[in-house]
Amino acid sequence: EKGGYEHFMHKEIHEQPRAYQDTMRGRVDETGKKVVLPDFHMTDEQIKNIRNIQIIACGTAYHAGLVGRTVIERLVRIPVETDVASEYRYRSPIITPETLVIVVSQSGETADTLAALREAHANGAHVLAITNVVGSSIARDADDVIATLAGPEIAVASTKAYTSQLIAFYLLGLYFAQVRGTQTEAQVAETLAAMQALPEQVESILAREGEAKVHAENFSAQKHLFFIGRGLDYAAAQEGSLKLKEISYIHSEAYAAGELKHGTLALIEDGVPVIALATEQALIEKTVSNIKEVKARGGVVLTICYEEDAKELMKSVDSVFTIPKTLPLLTASLSVVALQLLSYYASLSLGLDVDKPRNLAKSVTVE
Ligand code: F6R
C-alpha cells in the first residue's frame, strides 16, 4: 500500500505532481486559457458583490489559507483575512451578507473548522469549502465545495493535501478575477500556463531529493532552527516550520524576514541554522539584507531560491537548494516541496516515526 516507499509521507510527497494535475483537471477549459468551475453555485452577481473574504482553517490548512489570502488579494483586490478556526469563532467575527467565508480542511471533519463554518452560516455568510473529502461534514454543510483531488492522505503530516489546496486557491482566484474583470484574459492564460508546468517542476525537485537529505542531515542535530521569508515566502516558511516541528521535534519558528530585528535576532548565535526562502523577486534584496543580519551573528543559512539567483545569493549564504522558476504568485507550490523533503529527511535521520509523530492524530475531532 506504500507503493514501494518506506513511509506514507514519502509516497505522498511524490504523489504531488499527480495531485496537482488531478486538482486542475476539468477546471480549465479546452483552450487552456480560462478557469471553469462546473459545480459552482455562486452566481456571477454574488461574486461581484463580495466585499470581503475570511479564510478559516487549522494547522497546515491554515497555512494554505495564508497563501490563499495573498493569491486572492493580488488577483482580485478583495480584502482577505485568514484566521485559525479556534480563534475565529471567539472574536465575534464581523460578517455581512457580502462576506464570503472559505473554510479549508483536508479531512473535512476538523471540529474547530466545522464549528467556525456553522458560526459563519448562522451569521448569514456564504460558505465555500476547500476539502479533500467530498462526503465529509464540512463538504456537506458548505454552500459550495472545491474538492482537492489529492487522494487519501495517510501520513499525519500533510503534504499533498496542502499543495492541492494551493492549486484550489489559484483556480478560485483566477475564476473570481475572470468574473470581476480584475485580470486580463492574457494574464489568466499566462498563470494557467505556468500552473500546467508545475507538476514537471515538482518532479525536477523530487529528482534532487538526495541534496535535500544532505542539508537535513546537516541541521538535524540542532535544537532550534528558524525559517525566514517575505510575502509568499513567509507563508511557505510557516508551513515548512510546522512540518519540521511535527515530525522531527526540532523547535523551529517561522519569521517574517523583516521582523527578525525586532527581537528574534537575539536568539541567533553561532551555528543556529536558518532556512531563508528567497524567491519573491520583488523582495529579494530586502531578504538578502536580513540574511546578512543573520550571518553577522553566526547563523548558518540555507537558502531556497531560483537557479538564476543562486550564484548571487551564494555570496551571502552557506548553502542553497534551488527550485525551478515560476510566476511569483505560484512560488509556494514549489518551495514547500523542498521544505517537505527537508523535514522528511530530518525526521528519518533522527530515527523518528515519520508517519505517526508523537501526540498527534490525523484528524482532530475535538475542540
Ligand atoms: C499538519 C497537519 C495538521 C492539519 C490540521 C487540519 O501536517 O496535518 O496541522 O492540517 O489538523 O486538518 P484538516 O485539514 O483535516 O482540517
UniProtKB/TrEMBL annotation:
Homodimer. Its main location: cytoplasm. It catalyses: D-fructose 6-phosphate + L-glutamine = D-glucosamine 6-phosphate + L-glutamate. The active site is at K362. GO terms for molecular function: carbohydrate derivative binding; glutamine-fructose-6-phosphate transaminase (isomerizing) activity. It is found in: Cytoplasm. Signal peptide: none annotated. Keywords: Aminotransferase, Cytoplasm, Glutamine amidotransferase, Repeat, Transferase. This is Glutamine--fructose-6-phosphate aminotransferase [isomerizing]. It is an enzyme of class 2 (transferase). Its EC number is 2.6.1.16. The keyword Protein biosynthesis does not apply. Residues 43-182, 215-357 form the SIS domain. Catalyzes the first step in hexosamine metabolism, converting fructose-6P into glucosamine-6P using glutamine as a nitrogen source. It comes from the Bacteria. GO terms for biological process: carbohydrate metabolic process; fructose 6-phosphate metabolic process; protein N-linked glycosylation; UDP-N-acetylglucosamine metabolic process. One of its GO terms (cellular component) is cytosol.
